[in-house]
Amino acid sequence: MNANSQPVLSVKDLETVFHTGAGTVRAVRRISFDLRPGERLGIVGESGSGKSATALSILGLIEPPGEVVGGSVLLNGRELVGRSDRELGAVRGKEISLVYQDPMSALDPVKSIGKQLVETIRRHDRSISRKAARKQAVELLRDVEVPQPERRLDEFPHQYSGGMRQRVMIASALANRPDVVLADEPTTALDVTTQAQVLELLNRLVSERGAAIVLITHNLGIVAEFCDTVRVMYAGRLVEAAATRTLFRAPAHPYAGALLRAVPRPDRLERGPLPAIPGAPPNLAELPSGCSFEPRCPLGAGRPKCLQDAPTDRALGARHVECHFAEEQLKQEVTA
Amino acid sequence: MLRFLSGRVLGGIASIFGASILAFVFLRAIPGDPARLVLGPLASPQAISALHKQMGLDDPIYVQYWRYVSDFFSGHWGFSYSAGQSVGQQIGSRLPASLELGLWAFLFAFVFAVLLALLSTYRHRPVIDGITRALAFIGLGTPPFWLGLMLLVVFFSWLGILPGPGSRIGDSVPLPPKITGMLTIDAILAGDPRAFLSAFVHLLLPAFSLGLASFALLVRLLRANLAEVGREPFLVVVRSKGLGRWTAHRRHALPNAFLPTLTASGLILAQLIAGSVVVEEVFNWPGVGKLVVDSILRQDFSVVQAFILLSACAYVAINLVVDLLYGVLDPRVREGAAT
Fold first, then answer.
1. Contacts A60 to B, Cβ<8 Å
2. Is the peptide bond before A65 cis (omega within 30 degrees of 0)?
3. Which residues in chain A are contacts of B246 at CB distance < 8 A?
4. Under CATH, to which class is A9-227 assigned?
5. A18–B contact, CB cutoff 8 A
6. Residue B241 is nearest to which of A63, A85, A92, comparing CB atoms?
7. What is the ipTM of this complex?
8. pLDDT at A3 over 60
9. Domains and CATH numbers, chain B
10. Residues B40, B44, B49, CA angle at the centre, nearest 5°?
11. A16: which of A65, A170, B67, B302 is 20 to 30 A away, CA to CA?
């Protein structure tokens, strides 16, 4: 990773809302991050924190009642927000692609695997003949280690196992050598051994092709293994940004700290049950005026500053954090 | 697949058997003596009993039934006394008109249902969706005979731009050589655009009247299915590959949404062909439906009997085709049947 190169993807103040009967749900709240060529960035957070909405907002695939209401997404220096669907269609699948979380429902059940791969290839280059695209599709399947690719190309999704389908998804996402891959919970629906295989595959393919990847997950173990940098997402905000090693050594946001302590580890289990984070994420339609983590925060619950002022992004050494008392948190982490 | 098919064929045979029993019993249960109907009130008892013998009405009931069924399948559908023609000839001369009307009505219903259902679901457009739903609602609630009459009043009587009832093609237009008996298709086969256009224009109002309710039913089914399939993750994935909304929906949502409506489509097609009685009556269309009504009024039941069995066979055949189509269109059915 070259820290000085221009970001391939630059998200700034991106904001997405969903208009529901219960009010306007602010799913993504003015988030910003840069992704450098070849970088592996992890976005972690619990269910409903806005991770998937972030991926879809970047791709311009938020459909009503959802809406991207502000911010900017620069892909290779070109603005994506506000572009027509037709213009975005030329970019999606070519410069930026998506690996979807649930392989069981991510493929069209009535089209053969080959047809779906050929469609991805030919969408962005009509000059490739069907036959040539088929050949490419066979190579892609071979690349993602699907056995007997020539034969399996004509099979249908229901004849593939979950892990194999996810391999097909990865093949499809990488078919046109995109610069950025958004992987939304790519292994969540798979069993543990398959998870490891799929991750290893993703790892190899992304390195070979030099693609940058945004890995969205709730699994900190995957982040630790896979990512160069991490963003911690809470209630639609990125509350901490750091290099993976920095964050895992000592998280500066109390939420990140609580998440890390909730990771099961054999040595900790002996000390009793895992510490759960009390409470539930806030209602994104009625956010409190102060810090959105305050009601659940072991550090700031009840503190006047946390109740009144929403913390803003500030640099703390090499990292960025949104917490009034990050220094206090860090001191605790170091002594603990 | 073979097992699947043979099951369907057996089921079909059972349905036809049931229909034949119904038609047979129906004819015996009707009050009145067929021989008396033929010979009239003044015939002598000797003549009546002679005709009884000739018609086989003295034979045991199972012999009569067997004769009815075997005659039907060997093409001897009896003799229509009121028309002085064999029933086979009569139905044969009327069937193409009904087939043509039913097929065009179905084509109209199907094409517009697919188009409107796609248009109202492929992206978030509440106004078009509302119009589609209103159209479906109106279509389901409009009786075909009333609609047919209104259309005739407006387009024939007032505006005079479309032909009135009673003919299938313009008087001055020479008939295309008879191949299928369906004028539009014969005209295409003969390469005669003038005949095609004339026959088509004559079909417009009856086909619309006949097809509107079916269109409404289909559009409702398809719209609901499309809306449901539209929420499937694979559509997001397809869009993330760069496909536009319309292409994604046409290519991926429609085939998936269409599968559950296939059965309904088959039934609708069969109904449009066999059940266009009311519309044929309004437009004085020389089809089978009108023939059946006229035959009932004249108590000429041999026609009715043949028609019941014939339409049962048509339903069974169309359903068989639908089942085959499932195998072609849905890979999961294909596999499930193979293993």
1. none
2. yes
3. none
4. alpha beta
5. no
6. A92
7. 0.90
8. no
9. 88-299 (1.10.3720.10)
10. 90
11. A170
